[in-house]
Amino acid sequence: MNFTRWSARFPGTQRRAAARTEHAAAQAKRGEGAVPAARGGPAPGTERSTPAADGHPADPTVRGTGSATGAATGSAPARPGSLAPVPSLDELSVREVLGRLPSLVALVHGPEHRIAYVNDAYTAGFGARTPGAPAHEGLPELGELGLLPLLDQVQRSGKSRTAKNRTAPGGGSSYTVTCTPVEFPKPETDGERENGSGSESGSDPHHTGVLIHLADVTDHAEAVERLRASERRQREAAVTLQRSLLPQELEQPDDLRVAATYQPGGTEAAVGGDWYDVITLGAGRTALVIGDVMGRGVRAAAVMGQLRTAVRAYARLDLPPHEVLQLLDGLAAEIDASQIATCVYAVHDPNEGLLAYASAGHLPILVRDEDGTVRRAADPTGPPLGTGGWLHTSGTIALGPGSTAVLYTDGLVERRGEDIDEGVAALERALSGAQGTPAVICDRLMRALGVDADHDDDVAVMVLQQPARTGTDAELFHNAGLELHGGIEAAPRARAFAQGVLASWRFPIELCDLGVLAASELVANSLQHGTPPMRLRLRRTDRRLIVEVTDGDDHLPRRRRAEPADETGRGISIIATIASSWGSRRTPGGGKAVWCEFALPDK
Fold it and tell me: What is the pLDDT of residues 412-437, one digit of tens each?
């Protein structure tokens, strides 16, 4: 074995090297040659050893110092008052070297790995060992560390192997173990001794062994474990924050079935800022939003929470999708200019059978028709939120009875080394054959795209369905409308129309009266403050009655307190008093819609 690379670590090597350098310089100045070492030149890193005549004791770690050493090795004898010859590293005893190592060292021999030697550090660590005993009996700690198969592998292959961070059972020390093959000389026979041919071990397993070196890395392993524990705590905090900021229970509109799922990235990936939400706007309309904050960790989750809260606030204004994104764009830049987010905001209107949407750098909405055809929502798509300087626009895509729409984040379709369009195409294929409820479709799409617990990115998916209702279920959903023409006679016509429709829907008398009163007040308000064209629309679902009036004026009404002497100004107050909720919004054509809802009595 070659211990040259370890020699610098032996005690006193620095002193020997310095002394040897000074001695060589002094001899060169006097024109004298250096005293040769026993074998070759002096080994780097050996200590000066002066004879006893100078009054300095010889180095106890080196065998045979002084003049006796020179005579034994064939070198020139030391003169009185001169430096003694420096022994080479090859003269050091292997047993002496291994015994001084702080690491644990054991040497095993033969196929059964019988104990040939253990150093003092090994004995201190595991106790005394009996030479000649097989490793599985005499060195049970190797079995506990799972090293016995490694010994067989090293002996068969003749190559060194290293096993890192092996921890002893019971939470003991951790070791990095290096096993190195060694060869033992084969005992000479009488014939070989007479012929002088000597012996060679060759590949005979009975004359090979393994040198086992165990370096204690307990401190390092504990530091790594503390770091991993800290990372786990940070990840758990981020996941907890992320999930707490997502809706705990999705709102379920009357006309849609909605399900969503969120899957954080695997344990090696930091938590991102994927999010989704469902917001009922009133009058049967529903807002659906999904987004992704670029970045990782708690900061991305915090920004996501602020954007989600802002979306809910802006949605209450019942603005068109592109105006909501315009407001979010400015807010995202104010929250953190370094955090970029993508988002899709869509509004479903059951009366129109359309999904109006606007996209800020997000992936396209996919819609599967009842016959299995999958369509992508086309542009418009603007830049991500927070970039500023862009006017977003809205688009529409049909969502008829029996249709299914999917909103998702890039973690579902993006893969390293693949174009993202390939992932979207794979999602289209998976969606075309997906059947069942929205929750079932969510699970099937996740499985089809290979998203599991070890996925390297966050994934959010939202699925919504417009059911195709037939039979008894269809009787619970009705629409009726009346175009309002003329002047003051429009109000009585509206009351008569509402009375007949509500009676045909078999509502209780009290609800019919409230519905007729609401229709009368809304029509009167539109006749006084609005402009043609005007329309009264009545809609019933399985849970509520909706009364809505549209006209061509975009001035939104507001509730105000009327003075006793005022002859007008009480219509909206009456609506707010008798209805479960009311609201108004601007319509795409430039007008407005004013509506109110009444909850149906439980059956």
Answer: 999 888 899 999 999 999 999 888 99
Q: Please indicate, yes or no, whether the overall pTM of this predicted structure exceeds 0.85.
A: no
The C-alpha atoms of residue 516 and residue 520 are separated, in whole angstroms, by 6
Q: Within a 10 A sphere around the Cβ of 183, how many other Cβ atoms?
A: 14
d(CA 547, CA 595): 6
Report in angstroms the alpha-carbon separations of 120 from 13, 60, 99.
22, 18, 6
Q: How much is the pLDDT for 221?
A: 84
Higher local confidence (pLDDT), 67 or 448: 448
Rg of the chain in Å (alpha carbons) = 43
Cα 447 from Cα 437, distance rounded (Å): 16
Q: Which of 572, 595, 591, 527 is nearest to 350 (CA)?
A: 595
Cβ–Cβ < 8 Å for 270, 297: yes
**What confidence tier does 389 reach under pLDDT thresholds 50, 70, 90?**
confident
533 upstream amide cis, omega within 30 of 0? yes
What's the per-residue H, E or C state across 114-127? EEEEECHHHHHHHC
Phi and psi torsions of 519, nearest 5°: -60, -40
Q: Give the bridge partners for 258, in sequence order.
A: 464
Whether residue 267 contacts residue 235, with contact meaning beta carbons closer than 8 Å, is answered with yes
Q: Which residues contact 127 (CB under 8 A, 6 or more apart)?
A: none
Dmax (CA) for the chain in angstroms is 139
- Which one-letter amino acid corresponds to residue 403? S
- The C-alpha atoms of residue 505 and residue 497 are separated, in whole angstroms, by 13
Edge-to-edge, what's the strand order for the sheet holding 104-109? 114-118, 104-109, 208-216, 174-183, 161-167
Distance CA 575, CA 552 (A): 21
Alpha-carbon distance of 444 to 459, in angstroms, equals 14
DSSP letter for 434, please.
-
Query: How far is 85 from 78, CA to CA, in rounded Å?
Result: 7
E strands, 283-416, are 285-293, 341-349, 354-360, 366-368, 374-376, 381-382, 395-398, 403-408
Nearby residues of 317 by Cβ (< 8 Å), 6 or more positions away: none
Residue 491: count of CB within 10 angstroms of its CB: 18
Here the tokens at position 432 are 């075309």
598 close to 540: Cβ distance less than 8 angstroms = no
Residue 577 has pLDDT above 70, yes or no: yes
How far from chain centre, in Å, is Cα 85? 65
Q: Distance of CA 81 to CAs 34, 53, 78, Å?
A: 15, 7, 8
DSSP string, 564-591: TT-SSS-HHHHHHHHSSEEEEEE-TTS-
Q: Is-contact 286 263, C-beta < 8 A?
A: no
